[in-house]
Amino acid sequence: MTTTEAVPRTAGTATEISRVHSLRQVLQVQSFQILLVLLVIFLVFSALAPEVFPTWGNVRQIIQNVSILGVLGIGMTFVIVTSGIDLSIGSNLVFSGVVAAKVMQAVGGSGWGTAIVGILVAVGCGLGWGLLNGVLIAKAKVPPLIVTLGTLGGALGLAQVITGGVDIREVPAILQDTIGYGNVPGTTLPTISLIAMVLILIFGTVLHRTRFGLYTFAVGSNEESARRVGVKVDRQLISIYALSGGLAGVAGILSLSQYGTTAIAGQSATNLNVIAAVVIGGTSLFGGVGTIFGTVVGLFIPAVLQNGFVIVGIQPFWQQVAVGAVLVVAVYVDQRRRAAAARGHSAKSDGKKKLFGRRSS
Amino acid sequence: MKLTPKVTLLAAGVLTATSLTACAGGSASGGSAAGAQPKLTFIQGVAGDEFYVSMQCGIDAAAKASGATVNTQGPAKFDPTLQKPIVDSVVASQPDAILIAPTDVAAMQAPLKAAAAAGIKVVLVDTTVQDPSFAASAIASDNKGGGLEAFKAIKNLSPSGGKVLVISTDPGVSTADARVAGFEEGAKADPSFEYLGVQYSHNDPAEAAKLVSAALAKDPDIVGVFAANTFAAEGTATGIRQAGKQNQVKIVGFDAGPAQVKQLKDGVVQALIAQEPASIGTQGVDQALKAIKGESTQKEIQTGFKQITADNISGDGAKYVYKSSC
Amino acid sequence: MTTIPVLEARGLTRSFGNVRALDGVDFDVHAGEVVALIGDNGAGKSTLVKALSGNLALDSGKILFAGGEVELGSPSQASSLGIETVYQDLALAPHLNAAQNMFLGREIPKPGFQGRLGFMDNKAMRAKSREAFDELGATVRSLSDPVGSMSGGQKQAIAIARAVAWAKGVIFLDEPTAALGVVQTRNVLETIRRVRDKGVGVVFISHSMPHVIDVADRVQVLRLGRRVATYEAKKTSVEELVGAMTGALDGAHS
To answer: What whole-number distance in Å separates Cα of residue A305 and Cα of residue A174?
Structure first.
């Protein structure tokens, strides 16, 4: 019979062998590469504006402004890992905010009781649109691009019908004061950022450590295979789009809290910005690969670029050029990595797995 | 020590944290000392809009004359969710004063109030917020008067009266709403005109074109349309041309960007009510510098408007055309 | 053979539009036996395998598992009976590693509350996967590399090991050696023998007559959707098999 290599074959040894990594291996992991890019950008701007840029006051507001996008990014990561897409998150956010604002207006009052009703309504609306997306994609087999393009229009249109196009600017003060602009008691960390971080941690764990997350990757990697071994693919897809929708609902109430208005005309580019962030962070549009950590880094890059450009005084249009360039480079790197993996460069993917990908330990 | 991922990350984190705190101690305490060059930042409502570019030209010229520096920033769309991060970044850069056209009366209230609380002087230009009491000054065109003037222009063009429509941008934008209100007042007071109401094009010319086409389908005998800003005017002209009704429907536009001036010269639009954005800008710098020096400021300033028609475009009216670059 | 077949098909029919893919086909395989299923292109081999693994609805006919009639409405129903299939495309998820692929759909949960939340016992799954690969002599160097980056032979080994690990009754292998080199082919054939020795019934489709005669116990020939011949592998020849496949020797039985 074929003999195996000299390494003793006891359980788990295979992973022990490759535990010590060279810097080179580490550098090949895309999530780490993108973190380095972020650090380089940060250091460059720190050098250009040392008294303003690297201060906690400045970094704090970057984190605060990225929080809502972070919540949306969670859902989008799950969706893109299954090689799907969700264009409806911006409209979903607006719709959920609108309905929540209307309900809170009707309920009256500005304390936590009203606020909680608003939160539940917003999440419920978000889940509703998400479920609609999921069912059409999984059961009716309509491509995700088309379905979410439809719900993008539908949700925004309904929001405009409900409000007559006029923003509702009545938001319970408690929401604005605590979540919108408040800090976590005893710190200077914005509450809205804490909420986003908690959600990121929870769903990051789900994606990278639980069966639900594993099935997400399986469906994205080879949907047919997953189906054949008994993974309930339809149910998985519906859940994922529902998750994305539900998180858009959460983002809706967060946005209401932060802006104090439904901002119906806003969020027009949010879906593409979030998709760009997820892709920059190393999640492949072709499915099967991705990390929540990468998405978070991917969100910070455009935000830090814009912040830096504003502080240094560069024309706003260059900011969009820069973000576009980073996005194209990120996809190019992803393509090269996929080609290399197909040719069998296991060292690269080994490093990737160990660091920020699915941990087998 | 082997450079394992954990170690590398830790090192990177320490590096970032050090650069963070090293400068935090010596962070700028408010603006520059008196006598140094005042730092102004101008935050446009939307970058690339000729109205705001003209304003920028006025601001740049006035600042240069007084020895102040100006940093101009603006969101890609007239959208508070895009403008707020810019405002926050600008506040972090600690200018002496901010001149800003807020994109939403409610959403920008808190960030700007916080800026004022941090010691930065805030001057509101063009649009305003719900409670502008924190601002050193609020400068805008007399938009209501401008709307009324637009109605008068329509009356000049169609003395016999008829149906009139307004295409505005978004409800809740203070400037546009005031113009619509002025026009509506004039139209309703005049029995020979029938006021068909206002439609919102969301600052999108394509949307304006669609709305006008639909309105013409519903009421083919409209005699006049008042387009409440640059993009609305562009789209309205397109919509009317698509319906082939250039001769029947008179358009009065608000704002005089190069595209609208071309339309005026081509006869597609019959009159333009131009604001004086450069003047707003100049006055804005004036008030900002006064506030920085601690002098008293004028809380509310209203600037005027000029009517540009085919008659005066080559003469007097030419200097009121908005610029697309300084 | 006097023992009851572990899996038997009687008179299965299935049409796709005007094409009769299965035209009253019979089939049987016993425990601890290797049956080669051969036939020319379009004879209905893959269709038959799909039907017997729960991936295809039938127009008529009976399927019997260990003598009892069953309805195989879904792959999981077939799996629960102990019927596993290795498809030509291997049905592996390329981004997942060998252990994850092995246990896909059947993960071992962490004990207690954590398990109910969905956390998996990765250590146990890796240990069991290592055992399964060793048993088959499969050389899988790393349990944490994505299988997409592995060679065809390794992937084949993983796919077969997965099927073998979960199969209690019958394994179907659809062209298992089609894309493999000489050494890898030898390994696969050896694996097939080992599986048979475990008492599982093995059915494999192949176009390679030499391999068929080498490793099979019996050979069943399909033509135009029906079984036209059954031979004992050691007593037949390549010419006879080819003849049965093409129809030159209709009706021969051994």
So the answer is: 32
Return the half-sphere exposure (C-beta side, CA atoms, 13 A cut-off) of residue B49.
25
Tokens 């996005």 sit on residue: A327
Mutate to test the interface with A, among B89, B105, B203, B207 (most CBs of A within 10 A): B89
Go through chain C and tell me how many residues it has: 254
Backbone angles phi, psi at B193, to 5 degrees: -115, 145
| Residue A128 sits at the chain B interface (C-beta within 8 Å) | no
- Between CA C48 and CA C58 the distance in angstroms is 10
Q: Note the pLDDT tens digit of each residue in B7-20.
A: 555 555 555 555 54
In the chain, the amino acid numbered A236 is Q
Contacts of A349 in chain C (CB under 8 A): 145-146, 149
For the cut 70, the answer to whether the pLDDT of residue B281 exceeds it is yes
Query: E strand or H helix at C115, and its extent?
Result: helix C113-117
**Most confidently predicted of A314-318, B55-59, C205-209:** B55-59
Neighbours of chain B (3+ CB pairs under 8 A): A
* Per-residue pLDDT tens over the stretch B206-219: 999 999 999 999 98
CA distance to partner chain A, nearest, from residue B19 (Å): 7
How is residue B103 written in tokens? 């994109």
pLDDT at A346: 45
The candidate with the shortest Cα–Cα distance to A180, out of A99, A267, A115, is A115
Q: Which residues of A touch C137 (CB under 8 A)?
A: 1-2
Task: Give the integer Cα–Cα distance in Å for A116 and C174.
Answer: 57
Q: With a cut of 0.90, is the ipTM above it?
A: no
pLDDT of C2 reads 64
Interface of A with B in 138-197 (CB under 8 A): 164-167, 169, 176, 180-181
Q: What is the largest CA-CA distance in chain A?
A: 78
Sheet of B121-125: strand order equals B69-73, B39-43, B97-100, B121-125, B137-141, B300-303
Mean pLDDT score of chain C: 86
- At B55, the pLDDT band (50, 70, 90 cuts) reads very high
CA gap C250, C248 in Å, rounded: 6
Comparing CA positions, the residue from B71, B69, B77 lying closest to residue B100 is B71
pLDDT of residue A242: 97
| pLDDT higher than threshold 70 for residue A20 | no
* Spatial separation of the C-alpha atoms in residues B73 and A317, rounded to whole Å: 9
Q: Is the pLDDT of residue B29 over 60?
A: no
CA distance A265 to C142: 52
Pairing outcome for strands B193-200 and B162-168: parallel
CA B91/CA B108 separation, integer angstroms:
13
| Cα A154 to Cα A94, A95, C104, distances in angstroms | 11, 10, 37
Looking at the DSSP assignment, which residues form a beta bridge with residue B264? none
For residue B129, give the amino acid letter.
Answer: V
Q: pTM for this one?
A: 0.82
